[in-house]
Amino acid sequence: MAMKIRLARGGSKKRPFYRIVAADSRMPRDGRYVEKLGTYNPLLAKDSEERVKMDMERVQYWLDQGAQPTDRISRFLEAAGVAETKERANLKKGEPGKKAQDRAEEKAAKAAAADEAAAAPAEEPAAEEASE
User: Fold this and answer.
1) pLDDT value, residue 39
2) What is the C-alpha separation between 3 and 79, in angstroms, rounded?
3) Ramachandran quadrant class, 66 (left: phi over 0; alpha: psi -120 to 50; beta: rest)
4) Residue 43 and residue 34: Cα distance in Å, rounded?
5) What pLDDT, on a 0 to 100 scale, did the predictor assign at position 131?
6) Nearest CA to 59 among 44, 86, 40?
7) Considering all CA atoms of the chain, what is the largest pairwise distance in Å, rounded to the nearest integer?
8) Stated pTM of the model
9) Is 11 left (phi over 0), alpha (psi -120 to 50) or beta?
10) Residue-level pLDDT at 132
11) Integer Cα distance of 77 and 60 in angstroms
12) Are the C-beta atoms of residues 42 and 20 closer than 8 Å to each other?
């Protein structure tokens, strides 16, 4: 049986609440699970202790049994200091699209032109005073 440690959604529409569960990977997301390991409430502040609660002994048991944590659960475990921090590469998704890059280049060009225009009048009066 391929076990996963994952989130099972609860709560009402637009008010998510998740149970952290150990479940067979073939079961539906909110379906049958073997054991409830904790809770996650994304509506709470990030620094709140109530946001993520896990029974670390049971989580460690399931990891020792070969259960694979999902990406979100592995991030929780990294924050708790249980799992090693993984190197994540967000190669293409983090880059802005072509139109956004073009807009950024245009904005930078306008800013450079404005800086040159502001610097040029300041130099001209100094040149006139020197010639007198």
Assistant:
1) 95
2) 22
3) left
4) 26
5) 55
6) 40
7) 92
8) 0.65
9) left
10) 54
11) 10
12) no
